[in-house]
UniProtKB/TrEMBL annotation:
<dbReference type="InterPro" id="IPR029479">
    <property type="entry name" value="Nitroreductase"/>
</dbReference>
<dbReference type="InterPro" id="IPR000415">
    <property type="entry name" value="Nitroreductase-like"/>
</dbReference>
<protein>
    <submittedName>
        <fullName>Nitroreductase family protein</fullName>
    </submittedName>
</protein>
<keyword id="KW-0520">NAD</keyword>
<feature type="domain" description="Nitroreductase">
    <location>
        <begin position="8"/>
        <end position="167"/>
    </location>
</feature>
<dbReference type="InterPro" id="IPR050627">
    <property type="entry name" value="Nitroreductase/BluB"/>
</dbReference>
<dbReference type="Pfam" id="PF00881">
    <property type="entry name" value="Nitroreductase"/>
</dbReference>
Length: 188
C-alpha cells in the first residue's frame, strides 16, 4: 500500500499526549498541508492560529466547559462538569481553524478538507492529533469579540474547529474503528 493510503487508514483520534513540544518544522509542514487543500472557487477561506501557550490552551478548555455545563446534550454536559476533563486534552500544540463567513462558496467543506489534510500530514510525521469541534462554544456568547481578537482571528472570520497535536502517550497505537457496511454502491 502507498504511504498516503497507509496514513489514511492508520490515523486515529488521540486524546493523551506527552508534554514534549512538536518540532517547529513539523508544525510548518502540517500547516502547509492545510494550505494546500482544495477549496470551492479556490477561495481558500481559512485562517490558522497555532497556539502553544499552556495558559491560553487551559483557558479555552475551561471557557468551553463553562459554555457547555448546562447544554441540552447529556454527554457534553457530563464532560463539561467533569473537573479532570480537558477539552483540548492538554495537548502542547493546538491549531484553531477559522473560516471566512461571507462570500465563501463552501467554507465548512473547505475547512474540513484543510483540517483533514493537516491530520494526515501529522500522521505521516509521527504526530498524533484529534479534531475538536466543541471549541466553537468558546468563541460564541458575550465575550466573542474579545476571544476572537485574542486568537488573531481576522475580521469577518469565525472559529469552526481546532486540532490538538502532540506525541501520543498511549501505549501502542489504537486499531482503526470497524467501518459501517453498505455505505457504497456502484452503477456501471
Ligand atoms: C467535525 C468533527 C468534530 C469533532 N469534535 C470532537 C471533539 O470536540 N472532541 C473529541 O474528542 N473528538 C472530536 N472529534 C473526533 C471524533 O470523535 C472521531 O474522529 C471519531 O470518533 C472517529 O474516531 P477516529 O478519529 O479515531 O477514527 C471530531 C471529529 C470531527 C470530524
Amino acid at each position: 500500500m502507498n504511504t498516503v493510503l497507509e496514513n489514511i487508514k492508520k490515523r486515529r483520534s488521540i486524546r493523551k499526549y506527552k508534554e514534549m513540544q512538536i518540532e517547529q518544522e513539523k508544525i510548518e509542514a502540517i500547516i502547509e498541508a492545510g494550505l494546500y487543500a482544495p477549496s470551492g472557487h479556490n477561495a481558500q477561506p481559512w485562517h490558522f492560529t497555532v497556539l502553544q501557550n499552556k495558559e491560553i490552551i487551559d483557558q479555552i478548555s475551561a471557557g468551553t466547559k463553562e459554555a457547555l455545563k448546562d447544554c441540552e446534550t447529556p454527554i457534553f454536559r457530563r464532560m463539561a462538569r467533569n473537573e479532570s476533563f480537558h477539552i483540548l486534552y492538554d495537548a502542547p500544540t493546538v491549531i484553531v481553524v477559522s473560516g471566512k463567513k461571507e462570500g465563501a462558496y463552501s467554507m465548512k467543506a473547505d475547512l474540513g478538507a484543510a483540517t483533514q489534510n493537516m491530520l494526515l500530514a501529522a500522521e505521516s510525521l509521527g504526530v498524533s492529533t484529534c479534531w475538536i469541534g466543541l471549541v466553537v462554544e468558546y468563541f460564541k456568547g458575550e465575550e466573542k469579540e474579545k476571544r476572537n481578537e485574542e486568537m488573531g482571528v481576522p475580521e469577518g472570520y469565525e472559529v469552526q474547529y481546532a486540532v490538538t497535536l502532540g506525541y501520543s502517550s498511549l501505549e501502542g497505537s489504537p486499531k482503526p474503528h470497524a467501518r459501517k457496511e453498505n455505505t457504497v454502491n456502484y452503477i456501471k
